[in-house]
Amino acid sequence: MISLLYHDVVADSDFSASGFGGSGADRYKLTVPEFENHVAAIAEVNHEGALTAIDPQALPGADGRIYLTFDDGGVSAHQLTAEILERRGWRGTFFITTDYIGKPAFLNAGQIRDLRQRGHSIGTHSCSHPPLMARRPRTQLNREWRDSAAVLSDILGEPIVLASVPGGFYAPNVAAAAAESGITALFNSDPVSASSRVDGCQVYGRYAIQRNVGPRTAARIVAGDLFPRFIQYCHWHGTMTLQRIGGMYYHRLRRAWLEGPSAE
Fold first, then answer.
1. CA–CA distance, 205 with 235 (Å, rounded to integer)
2. Nearest Cα to Cα of residue 166 among 21, 7, 9
3. End-to-end alpha carbon distance in the chain
4. pLDDT by residue (tens digit) across 26-65?
5. DSSP string covering 121-157, please?
6. How far apart are CA 123 and CA 109, in angstroms?
7. For the residues 123-131, what does the mean pLDDT come to?
């Protein structure tokens, strides 16, 4: 199983129009033409038929499947991303940060319901999108998963059993808390196609797409090319090592570097 991790798709390079703001978040946002090029390139190498949303019940037998996932819950999921997928008969999986539902640049409850009714899957991306999630106390982890799943369940009228890790900062304690909250499938940002199990929760990796990852590279990852997968693996685990060593100091320095001297 291969899962690609996208974020927002925006019109006219207006990166502030959807999702979280700032240079760090903007690196993960694609313009409409860029995303359409990604979809076209993936379609060329996809031999599995229409790409579907993630079905939690089918995940154990999903070997060989390709999934497109979208983090944060920016409003472009409803306005732009879903429509581009649907033109090809595809569906995606959208992970929602529930504290931001209804806020400017984020999905509202009606848009989340509409996405689900159109055949897309919905999961939680936590309540507050905390930094360094694996270092949060267990009480906060439980609250982030339990409360966010409850909010989405109330909106959709169905259990929420899919989740993705904010910032990709994963450790087994994050999955254990997710399992305790009823999550059965947890997606992180570790660029691997294998999965592991923690308590009752199956943990899956994803290949993150930033703006510097072109459509042909995304297609090569989907097609099984080991070189771009290896590059992502090295980059991701180098970043995770720096995060574990530097903690919040790493995040402050990284933000200052991305946003310039005026960053707080």
1. 14
2. 7
3. 40
4. 999 999 999 999 999 999 999 878 999 999 888 876 678 9
5. EEEE--SS--SSGGGS-HHHHHHHHHHHHHHHHHHHT
6. 13
7. 96
Contact partners, residue 229, CB within 8 Å, separation at least 6: 191, 193, 207, 221
Q: Which residues contact 40 (CB under 8 A, 6 or more apart)?
A: 215
Cα→Cα distances 177→124, 134, 170, 187, 258, Å:
13, 10, 12, 14, 32
Stated length of the chain: 264
Burial of residue 46, with CB atoms counted within 10 A of its CB: 0-12 exposed, 13-18 middle, 19 or more buried = middle
Tell me, letter by letter, the H, E, C secondary structure of 91-107.
CCEEEECHHHCCCCCEC
Rounded distance, CA 174 to CA 23, Å? 27
Q: What is the pLDDT of residues 83-108, one digit of tens each?
A: 999 999 999 999 999 999 999 999 99
Long-range contacts of 42-46 (CB under 8 A, 24+ apart): 42/4, 42/66, 42/68, 42/215, 42/218, 42/219, 42/222, 43/88, 44/219, 45/219, 45/220, 45/222, 45/223, 46/222
